Amino acid sequence: MFIAKSLVFYPGYIQGDGQELSDEIILPSYHLNKLMEHFEDNEMLLVDITNRDKELSYMVAISTPHHEDKNTIYVPQWILDMIAYEDASDAVCTIRKAAIDDIPVATKIAIRPLDPIAFDTDILSCFEKTLMNLHSIKEGIIIPVQLPELGIMIYAQIEKVEPSPISRIINGEVDVEFINEFTFNVPVDAMAPPQPANEVVENTEMCWGSEPIEASNTNKVVEPLAHQPSAEERRQQVRDSWLKRFDKSANH
């Protein structure tokens, strides 16, 4: 059993690290050497980290070891949030080799950004950097996403994963679909019939590892609404609403 600490407390952590999402944890070298006995050559080093107090688990990858002590592991904060682990608690974590034989490789991922501002940036580039360091993906989770152009972080929900709700990520082609359901006020000529407002993200390819990733988009057609807040006010309202909802879910 281990005491888990956020990766930001790792002695080798440098301010500015972690801008790209990662699911890699740092184990004590003593335990890593023993754990490696259970892996074959060239096998992916995937393990399940479990919060024994909440009985919540998530599959993560093993990074380089540390030599600080034998009882502490360093884990990305978003993973700790996923298993409801709090540093101040008395909870402990266990690590065991993940059973990946029945976990397929992801072929399609549908992503729902929870902030409309995501569609005002280079969304493909942002998510390429976000996903390139993940070794598995799980349907329904909410992940933090850095928007370097704006210097802020937003959240996005993994809406759908195919062929299985939990799938591995390796170098190869993965179809990525961005879902945009945000609507904004669209001026309409009083003499003209209402026209649908489309929000479009161009289809393109993302480079993930050494292979391209095809990206597509789901368009939401919505009739323009009268007497609505401005686009910027609407964006702020939606952004605040989703952030409050995420904070509430993380605290439960």
Fold and architecture overview:
This protein is of the alpha/beta class. It folds into two domains: 3-97, Ubiquitin fusion degradation protein UFD1, N-terminal domain (Barwin-like endoglucanases), CATH 2.40.40.50; 108-250, Vcp-like ATPase, Chain A, domain 2, CATH 3.10.330.10. The protein has four helices and 14 strands. The strands form four sheets. A six-stranded mixed beta sheet has the order 9-10-7-12-14-13, with helices on both faces.
Topology readout:
Blueprint: E1 3-6, E2 24-25, H1 29-35, E3 46-51, E4 56-62, E5 72-75, H2 77-82, E6 93-97, E7 108-113, H3 123-131, E8 136-138, E9 142-147, E10 152-162, E11 166-168, E12 175-179, E13 204-208, E14 211-218, H4 231-250
Parallel strand pairs: 1-5, 2-4, 7-12, 12-14
Antiparallel strand pairs: 3-4, 3-6, 7-10, 8-11, 9-10, 13-14
